[in-house]
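Inverse folding, one chain.
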């Protein structure tokens, strides 16, 4: 009978057993999920006998069943999470355990108690093996996947030197950008920001999106709350289309119409010297006066005093200036006044000769304020522009530590009406304009003024139309 069964089996029996095995695993998973612990009767195998377990493949022998001897074209059904043994890696074919074929006579010869003990031990062993079986859901089965190739591709990507270099470069650029922005925000946080005051005139027609104008105000007062006469007034103009940076000095003795609002908010309209506008209405009245008389749009300002200028020059280690013997002697008068205000002994920093000298902050300030040597106030404004240009050029070629000292000294003494976001934007513009051409200009230019006298004081009476045309040509 057994021989007949063997002869009647289909030719592809392993594939049929493989299908039956899949169905049994699915059935076992369903039984375990509902907590089924019912025993099943031994099943008659294809050889006519009884298996020691429910089926030969219910027991995990550590090997893949069936496909070791027959390639059916399907990937193994991953049911048991096996730990591969060394002999498995060498692809040695294991010896298959043959089912027990005890004859009926031998089974009858064994005592019933012995058979029951053996059967119970085998059931317990089978149950323990089943509890260790991990049942995969259908979504977790991967037929035909080549994980070794995937790992090989991932390893190749990780070892690609070009991609690693660019990832490192991008990360470095991001870190530098974040650090630079944090440092700039720290410097800007040191600036004394003032609210924008009341403006009376903002209709200047000389304006362009390519040109940024900032009014630089230097005062000989020692207290920013004290509104004295402005000692220096310059317009810093950055033209990104022409790639130029122009410093325009405004002569303080120009006789102009002062129009706008005073400190009390009262409307004012009178004629006086340009440097008196700051006394009556601060920076806002000074900007209104400049915009009204010269038709140039100015909305932002930066204010520095004596102490700020001295600290800025000292922070960069001084500046080299060609000083004549006459200028060296004339610097004693303003330097004596500065020493008195800063609490220094008389005679500090005096020069006994001229030449190409490295001036410290106190000496550079006296050089910029020198008025009674040369062509009076005209040459004085020229010295002021020269000092500013010397500072900018030295900062460009300084090391990072010197630039740090310069930035801290400048920002800690600076007062402006620009908001901090506006200052951040201005810093970016300044970085892109470091290579721009530096220019100097004076208002009024030659042949556009004449000397006058009003209310007992000497003034410069200017040709406003000619000055406006010069500003338009040079700045725009």
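Residues assigned per position:
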């Amino acid at each position: 009978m057994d021989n007949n069964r063997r002869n009647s089996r289909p030719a592809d029996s392993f594939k049929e057993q493989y299908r039956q095995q899949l169905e049994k695993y699915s059935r076992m998973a369903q039984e375990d999920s509902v907590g089924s612990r019912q025993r099943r009767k031994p099943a008659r195998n294809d050889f006519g006998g009884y298996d020691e377990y429910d089926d030969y493949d219910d027991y995990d022998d550590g090997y893949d069943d069936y496909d070791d001897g027959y390639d059916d074209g399907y990937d193994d059904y991953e049911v048991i999470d096996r730990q591969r043994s060394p002999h498995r890696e060498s692809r040695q074919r294991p010896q298959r355990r043959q089912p027990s074929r005890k004859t009926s006579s031998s089974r009858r010869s064994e005592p019933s108690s012995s058979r029951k003990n053996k059967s119970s031990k085998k059931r317990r062993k089978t149950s323990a093996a089943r509890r260790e079986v991990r049942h995969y859901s259908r979504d977790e089965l991967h037929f035909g996947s080549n994980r070794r190739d995937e790992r090989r591709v991932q390893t190749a990507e990780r070892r690609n030197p070009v991609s690693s270099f660019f990832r490192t470069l991008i990360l470095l650029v991001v870190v530098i950008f974040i650090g630079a922005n944090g440092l700039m925000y720290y410097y800007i946080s040191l600036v004394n920001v003032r609210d924008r005051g009341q403006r009376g005139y903002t209709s200047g027609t000389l304006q362009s999106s390519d040109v940024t104008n900032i009014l630089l105000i230097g005062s000989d007062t020692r207290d920013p709350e004290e509104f004295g006469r402005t000692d220096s007034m310059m317009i810093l103009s950055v033209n990104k289309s022409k790639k130029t940076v122009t410093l325009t000095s405004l002569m303080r003795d120009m006789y102009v119409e002062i129009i706008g609002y005073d400190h009390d908010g009262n409307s004012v309209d009178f004629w006086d010297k340009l440097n008196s506008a700051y006394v009556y209405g601060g920076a806002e009245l000074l900007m209104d006066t400049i915009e009204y008389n010269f038709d140039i749009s100015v909305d932002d300002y930066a204010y520095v005093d004596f102490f700020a200028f001295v600290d800025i020059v000292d922070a960069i280690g001084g500046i080299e200036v060609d000083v004549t013997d006459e200028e060296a002697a004339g610097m004693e008068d303003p330097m004596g006044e500065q020493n008195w205000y800063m609490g220094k002994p008389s005679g500090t920093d005096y020069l006994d000769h001229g030449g190409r000298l490295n001036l410290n902050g106190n000496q550079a300030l006296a050089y910029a304020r020198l008025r009674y040597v040369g062509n009076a106030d005209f040459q004085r404004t020229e010295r002021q522009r020269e000092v500013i240009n010397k500072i900018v050029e030295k900062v460009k070629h300084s090391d990072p530590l010197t630039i740090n000292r310069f930035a801290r000294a400048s920002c800690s003494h600076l007062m402006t009406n620009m908001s901090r976001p506006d200052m951040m934007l201005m810093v970016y513009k300044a970085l892109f304009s470091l290579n721009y051409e530096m220019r100097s200009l004076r208002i009024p230019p030659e042949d556009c003024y004449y000397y006058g006298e009003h209310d007992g004081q000497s003034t410069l009476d200017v040709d406003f139309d000619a000055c406006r045309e010069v500003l338009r040509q040079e700045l725009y």
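The domain at 194-475 is CATH 3.40.630.190 (Aminopeptidase). The mean pLDDT is 77.
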